[in-house]
Amino acid sequence: ISGAAGGCQAEVGSASAMAAAAAVQTFGGTPEQAGHALAISISNLLGLVCDPVAGLVEIPCVMRNAIGSGNGLISADLALAGV
After folding, report:
1. Which residues of 20-45 are buried (b: 16+ CB within 10 A; e: fewer)?
2. Number of domains the chain is built from
3. Among 20-24, 26-30, 48-52, 74-78, which stretch is predicted with the lowest mean pLDDT?
4. Among 15, 33, 39, 47, fewest CB within 10 Å belongs to which?
């Protein structure tokens, strides 16, 4: 439902950012690093347009969810590396 109301950026972007911060905490990072991971992750997805096929919030949303999860983990790695 959140994808239909706020678009892919609201759904995938926020989930990716939360996953990035959680991954940093899981890997033993600091709260500051978690904040950096969150910022890196959300900035990668800013401006993502919601363009569902046939008006359904299914395609390309499903693929974007997978991309968002990878983005979260990569952002966590970047933050832990000090980028």
Report:
1. bbebbeeeebeeebbebbbebbbebb
2. 1
3. 48-52
4. 47
d(CA 77, CA 20): 9
Torsion of Cα atoms, 48 then 41 then 6 then 69, to 10°: 90
Q: Quickly tell me which residue has 């905490």 as its tokens.
A: 25
Range(s) of the domain holding residue 26: 2-80
* 8 Å CB contact between 64 and 14: no
Q: How far apart are CA 73 and CA 82, in angstroms?
A: 14
DSSP 34: H
Confidence of residue 77 (pLDDT cuts 50, 70, 90): very high
